[in-house]
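INFO batch 0412 | record 1 of 1 | parsing
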Amino acid sequence: MGTEQLGFEGMPQRLYSCTPSRLNSWLDCPRRYRMTYLDRPAPQKGPPWAHNSVGASVHNALAAWWRLPRHERTAEMAGTLLLRGWLTDGFRDAEQSRRWRERGREMVERYVADLDPDDEPLGVERTVATRTDRIAMSGRIDRLDARGPELVVVDYKTGRRVLTSDDARGSLALALYALAASRVLRRPCRTVELHHLPTGQVAVWEHTDESLRRHLARAEQIAAEAARADEAFKAELPADRVDEVFPPRPGSLCSWCDYVRHCPEGRRAAAPKDPWSGLAGEEP
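INFO prediction complete | emitting tokens
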């Protein structure tokens, strides 16, 4: 009996399960995508980054602060949570870690001082998910606020670059989070915000239904490309075709890639960075 008689041609297309990070990884560099999500065992990563330790420490402290009883939500307690959960990976030495721990404490205390502890978010580190006929997407939102009848996606940022509304507008992740939150909670969600803790600045963008549809269409396009590559990989792609399906995209960002040691093109494209190079004012 042929496959036509079995009806395989008419079967639904398999959904591509993804996070925004997975989609962006494919977009940035298919070779890095392969090393991250497909190679098993995965290639050894480079050393951890200090700026990631700062970011994770701050995110964890803010999440823990919202989970405290109302009477404990003070700026001082936010600083205490930061100190308790400080991550030390990637710093040059103990002194550099100590200085950045103090900066992190000041950062979260200053930020929390402007928050209303009674204004409970709808979600903190909340996982949301949605699907279309092509993708099944899930992701975790730093904070989901309810402002009147609408929801607002809040994303914390601790990097050295000051962010703008263009960053919020162009973020595929934030747009997908807004779509997913709206569908899960059945409330409109069009506003996305990037809260830059080092400066206290907030970059805001209010999407339209059309702009959200464009982001979703873009996500489905990226997913289709990655899914085809995944299937080729699972079908035991010949070694001489691996780079054809998963080409490197060398450039300045290669300095920050966890897998650059395994990528000759990446090493030629950009000089390696020290693990603490992403910290403002700590360049060699």
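INFO post-check: Confidence is low (pLDDT under 50) at residues 1-8.
INFO record closed
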